[in-house]
Please model this.
Amino acid sequence: MLHRLHNELKLPVYCVLDNDPWGYYIYSVIKQGSINLAFESQRMAIPDVRYLGLRSVDLERCKLSDDVKITLNDNDRKRAKQIAAYPWFAKKREWQREIQKMLQNDFKLEVESLMSKDISYVTEEYVPARLADQDWLD
Model:
């Protein structure tokens, strides 16, 4: 559906996902397709998608409370290292910095943590500011 909305209606696609290895993986599947569904990837991938989701700097940048930090577990750390080694991520300096910063912080953030600021913070402040500043990862 996203692929059709983007290609047929020429709508931009932005992903607002968690700051964790699983959010990064979901983004990569939308951007380049699934390794497991390689035969479908070209038909489903959206190479122009942008990652607008939470980043490792957002705890400070958004002035979030330490209460929203979720400590990385061994599976998170292992998955982050696997993702950093994926050919697509390995070629992207910004993504390498992002993954390393998350590992260095040793915590992850969920999109829901932004609601600790205000119920409408995501739609009224976070996303509009990121779009206006073109502050996304590609």
